[in-house]
Amino acid sequence: MKWKMSVIVRTVSDVMVVPIIVFGIYLILHGHLTPGGGFQGGAVVASATALLIVSNGALKDYKGDFSTMESAGLTFFFLLAFLGIVMGFAMFYNSLAGTGGIFGGTVMSGINPGYINTGGTVPLMNIVVGMEVIAALSLILWMMAKNSGMMEVEK
Amino acid sequence: MNLFLILPFFVVMVLVAMGLYVALFKKNLIKIIMGITLMQNGANLFLVSLAYREGYVAPIWTSAPATDMVLPTPHALTLTSIVIGVATTALMLSFVIMLKRHYGTIDSNEVRRCRE
Amino acid sequence: MNIATHLPSFILGIPLLFAFLTPIANKFSKEIRNAVFLTGLLLTGLFVGLMAYEVYTTGGWVYIFGAQDPVGELTTESLFRITFVADGFSTLATLTIIITAIGAAFYSLGYMKESPGMGKYYTLFLLTLAGVNGMVLTSDLFNLFVWFEVTSIASCALVAYHNERGKSVEAALKYMIISVVGGLLLLVSIGLFYGEYGVLNYALIGDSVHGSFIDLLAIGIIMVILAMKASSVPMHMWAPDAYAEAPEPITPFIAITSLGALFVLFRLIFFVFRGAVEPPALGTILIFLGVLSMFVGVSMALKQSDIKRLIAYLSVSQIGYMMMAVGVGFATLDTADYGSFGAMAIEGGFFHMINDGVYKALLFLSAAAVIYATKIRDLNKLGGLAHNMPYTTFFFIIGALSIAGIPPLSGFSSKLLIYESVYLYHPILAIIALVVSIITLALVAKVFFNAFLGPDQKMSKGEVPSSMLIAMGILTAVVILFSLFPHYVVSEIVVPAMESLGVGA
Known about the structure:
The structure holds three protein chains of three kinds.
Chain A: H1 7-29, H2 38-56, E1 58-60, H3 63-86, H4 121-147, E2 152-154
Parallel strand pairs in A: 1-2
Chain B: H1 3-25, H2 29-51, H3 73-103
Chain C: H1 7-26, H2 30-58, E1 61-64, E2 83-86, H3 88-111, H4 118-137, H5 141-159, H6 166-197, H7 202-208, H8 213-229, H9 238-245, H10 251-271, H11 279-302, H12 307-331, H13 336-374, H14 390-404, H15 410-425, H16 427-451, H17 466-484, H18 486-500
Antiparallel strand pairs in C: 1-2
Helix pairs in contact in C: 1-2, 1-4, 2-3, 2-4, 3-4, 3-10, 3-13, 3-17, 3-18, 4-5, 4-10, 5-6, 5-10, 6-8, 6-9, 8-10, 9-10, 9-12, 10-12, 10-13, 11-12, 11-16, 12-13, 12-15, 12-16, 13-14, 13-15, 13-17, 13-18, 14-16, 14-17, 15-16, 15-17
């Protein structure tokens, strides 16, 4: 069954995918400062996949890519968790916070707009969790749409 | 007692009871999963309502004194349980899609061949 | 800083890390994937062994995740950190889990060699391992919920591995719906505890519970949910379907998730619930559930002709022995009876748990060997396998005699402790236990006669591949080891587990 919406819907969704993905990435990167984070941002990005599937009724075969991205994200997550032990503290200890370097800035006190170079391992974990959630949710949507006959796989 | 402080708990009771009713007594597998999702929402709302303290502020690092902040633990628990809920719902829906392809039906009375 | 203090986090983290490395390795080749999987599993086994050594030499400790000092005190700032306990009870549980896991893993390597999608299979295997390990190690109620759900999701996906068969998907969906509804009710009762005491740590809740209505409600829900996950009657309906429809090599591992839930239930009973309820009342409930599971499980097994469903019902009835024994022990807590027979009952119950995990795995795996060789599961159609499959026959005999409690095998040692102690509590309990044991013997004898004895009908082409024989051999060796030194196992593994729960031997 070929499902395809009108050309207006398809054009608009092709354009809208870009701001959706940018907003999702913004949510992931600012997860330690504003409401949001890896899961929420990843879900927003994955909604772009849903939009493409619904409007076009077809998508290329990204199954292998999504699967690799998901596993890589989670592997990095647990490597970051073990970083605490490597640095001599407990697992999941935030050993990068306040040490200078990447995401190691000092948190300002008082009412302020937030400083992105803080948080230690938290923003790094947000990024890898974001990777994982983007890939996993997109993979779920892709598989469900394919197996329920909603979508065709483009060659 | 302020009515608005106990109202969320009534909503939780209604949501969980409705979810349980749907999950136990409906025959359509999709409806059963919808009932489970209702229960998930009820449980999440329960955790969030537990966290509310009158007059306390959100736990964000500003100049506010630490004693006037609510504990963020229930919110963290809620986020975790939402994430788990997504995973379980997705898995159950995929099972239903597969069952529909094998048996051609999603009626729980007809999807009962393990006992034969 | 002693690196050994990190062992609980390794037992959890290594399976998780390797679970997600496995699909990446799968992109390269089958051999690399299998190597990565086995490395993860054997590393976990190594760390379990090291933790056991460390616990038995230095005593237990509490590991705090995310803290600067992993073994420091819980302060007001770190009240909500996730804590894992490494003590005798965790060691008993993780040892049971890892022995079965290693058996099931080696068996999978041979059995599932040609099956598609094995990258996902091994990932889910390691995820289930991490989930069960997390469940038995954690001492934080919310963390328990997380691992409960991880175990449910991973093991349900494993049950549905043969998704070309409608029945597998059906069994998985049934298991999933029951687990998810159970998990949500568990979450609600955790919320009740949090709302009343404002803490989530077992020990801190255990200090403050006093038996209010909210306490009893939460305790009731948690007990029902964990008994459901432990496949105790009357919440057992998911178990035979899931065990029968899961891929054959993974079935003992699905059964281990039930045993894991039982470990958690016992830990909660002794750590948390003890202050809130009268021991005789809670003990009586456990005894009631146990007797019901024993009796219903074995009588449902009588009419099964599918070899895996029969063993699945037997495993439900074995769960009953542990619940009854620990129930008797708990009911006599703080009385003079505890010294005379209560402690012995708990000893027997805990010893039976580790025994049961191992010989049940052996039984499931030798049944799987029969299915692998003949592609037949119906006992009425099988026959004469002993001619071609001598090793499998031997392994099945060891497992069968052990589950029936025939001396000198390990099942006898633990059941004897149970019979002796529950007889002093109430003679009728011991009589029921004996009758169930006899029916179990009759059932395994029926399986043995139907499948293995009789004229050679040329059903199998010979013995199963060597990796499967090695897996069954490992489990048989463990059963024989436990049979030869039951006293040593009780004094070195079971008694420390009891002491760590605050009940002396």
